[in-house]
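Tokens for Paraquat-inducible protein A. Go.
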Amino acid sequence: MRAADAGLMVCHECHQLNRADAGQRHQRCVRCGARVHMRRPNSIVRTWALLITAALLYLPANLLPIMTVRMLGSGTPDTIMSGVVTLAKHGMFPIAAVVFIASILVPTFKLVGIAMLLFSVQRHHPMSPRQRILVFRFIEWIGRWSMLDIFVIAILVAIVNFGSLASVEAGFGAVAFASVVILTMLAAITFDPRLIWDNTESGNKHD
């Protein structure tokens, strides 16, 4: 039995369980006073909006230069992929692998994973609740690694600043990439995981 079937709602602020009151249209948490809902309002619509925006920014994030390293006044802008190739050419395969996984694979997995969850919940795709929750937990787990490139660039820009001798400049690709990371993080937060259980045999659909 689901909590919804028992008339229970969880507060997203303090995680207090609240019993649903049919006589109240807008119910508040008994502990902290925050608004509580049986399901987050418009969770699917909001998550789709964030996900589509992130997908649109994913192209410039990979096509535009993310960083330019200048030595003695000259330097070539690097995209994420060209940076990986450069690292590999210089024999730094472990670093190249970390950058490739954190900057290419992780955002791709998050975009595809969230889209799979939305499609599965909204269209009643034949995925078991266990499979859905595993995908959701995996998305939450890998999200912490998404900002690796941005942290590295921020540190390099702050530290490597020797005028005409050497400098590091962030490119527009870094802004697009940071936007993709933030939007996918917000999409994962906006998605209500309780929807995973709503279109099982014992559940009902809630958008």
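The chain has two domains: 1-37, 41-197.
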